[in-house]
Amino acid sequence: MPRMRPTGTQNPTVRETPTKDSYSLVYYKPDGGRGTKTFHATSKRAAQLQANAFIAEINRERQERTKSPSMALGIYAETVYLPWKRGQWKASTAVTTEQRIRQHIIGGSLAAVPLAQLDRTAIQGFLDAKALEPRSVVSHLRFDLRAILALAISDGLVQTNQADVCRTPGTCAAPDQPVMTADDVRRALSVLDVRERCFYRLAVYAGMRPGEICGLKWADIDEHARTAVVDDRWYNGQPGTVKTGKPRVVALSDSVMTDLHVWHMLAASGSEYIFAAEGGKTPVKYTNLWQRDIRPRLQSVGLGWADFRCARRTNATLMAAAGADPVVAAANRGHGVNVSINDYTRPGAGPKAEAVGLLEGYIT
After folding, report:
1. Of 16, 51, 188, 275, which one is least surrounded by beta carbons within 10 A?
2. Is the pLDDT score of 91 beyond 80?
3. Which residues are CB-neighbours of 103 under 8 A, at least 6 positions away?
């Protein structure tokens, strides 16, 4: 009797055979037995693409055979939900979301609970047990469970989404989201070399995401209009579309344009990318740039905490303090005004005091 493979998706790799342009694939059939298939192609990559299409259909059939209301949440998330969502998520979303689901849901206390027995009491108890985690993590887990059960409803495995009425525990710690003062920004820029200063200035002054900055090409810069076209981004060394899915034009300040001009004269790679990696064919990874070249310099002036997320919050906060139109400022950063105000802007005590003073003066 063939050895049964545990329920799950499979992603086997083709292997070369003694026959020219022939590649073999060993896989598990829908019934659990082992199978072999030969692909004919001029390269291993082409054969693997054929194999991927073949295996995708096998995986789909395996999932259909095993789906039932008694299926455990962890198995359903692993074999049905994640494969379905991977085709929709951007690379950056896939990395963070899949890691969270694997750690807390597939590897958590609810993993063995059958879908049909997953009620709001069990889900709320799971969320309450995460009360020491950051609020953002628990809120995302609540969203993940809602999304998983929504897919289970569409598969006819459950009738209602029990996660809809669950809540994030009020005891979850709010994340520490610091912003820089204007003096902090000046100190940070003063210790960076021209390439790193140019990159960091684009994050703070233009409010661009680091992946968007990596994707910038010299051809994207309009020196006359003092703008940059943001139409792609790079994440973990891979190209992708911008987060909103729509290209935008970003206004650039005088100091950003000056740094770009200086860096263009100094850059020796000849690459189309403004911040090219060694060799010039791809942009630098911003994680490497941060760890090796930016953070150590910022740590020397006590600003090692001022990462790229802090830079975007600083952009939103200082733009608001400077009196910029919130709609225009949000558009330059590439998100809605509600997100800009609620998630990024961190007004200090001074602006708050000025605001209540304005109201008091208006009333009296």
Report:
1. 16
2. no
3. none
